Amino acid sequence: MKFGIVVNEGPYTHQASDTAYNFTKAALEKGHEIIRVFFYHDGVNNATRLTVPPQDDRNLQKLWSELAEAHKLDMVVCIAAAQRRGILDENEAKRQGKDADNIAPAFRISGLGQLIDAGIKADRLVTFGD
Amino acid sequence: MSTLHTVNKSPFDGTSLSSALGLALPGDAVLLIEDGVVGARKGSSAAKAIEASLASCKVYVLGPDVAARGMKAEDLVSGVESVDYAGFVDLAANHARTQSWL
User: Fold this and answer.
1) Which 8-state DSSP code applies to residue B72?
2) Mutate to test the interface with B, among A29, A34, A120, A128 (most CBs of B within 10 A)
3) What is the predicted ipTM?
4) Which residue among A9, A106, A109, B74 is least crowded, i.e. fewest CB within 10 A of its CB?
5) What amino acid positions of A are annotated as catalytic residues?
6) How many independent structural domains does chain A possess?
């Protein structure tokens, strides 16, 4: 079955990103297809590679990046939500005249159309947030 | 065409549990996750509403979230079933859609 996942919360608000990660992992282990993980609202905060959590804490950005690389997941960050929160890729940094970018491996910045597309193509769209 | 409803907030921190239970149709399932599992505690003010819903719906809790909050199976309203993340995936697959009460 094709699943689409929406993550509306960053790693340090409540538990939604953890739950979304564990759900996605379990779905892949069961042989389901994850057609897209869409990071929206504060969920875009999962996509910065510059966070440095304590070593004994889980590192959600790293977990998401590794899961995506292992399973070739399409992880999309909402561009408008990302710009507000300072999540930039190389192109966006250049376009906005910023001196650096910070997007983590396996994430890509795109628009809300990708969420609509996931909603159309997925058999199930499951939202995690606050 | 049944619906899986997920509730991730305690009933003492908003009205998402009562919304979910109030709008769940017969044959739907309600899954309590994260702080939402507190709503399934036996003897709590939400327990009666959960017991009433069990007549027409299934009510589940996410086991790892129950354990993370120091609760055990015997602390839960009887009839509430515990699932793991794989069980959560099965519930999402077996219902036509998932409604997250955020």
Assistant:
1) -
2) A128
3) 0.97
4) B74
5) 78
6) 1
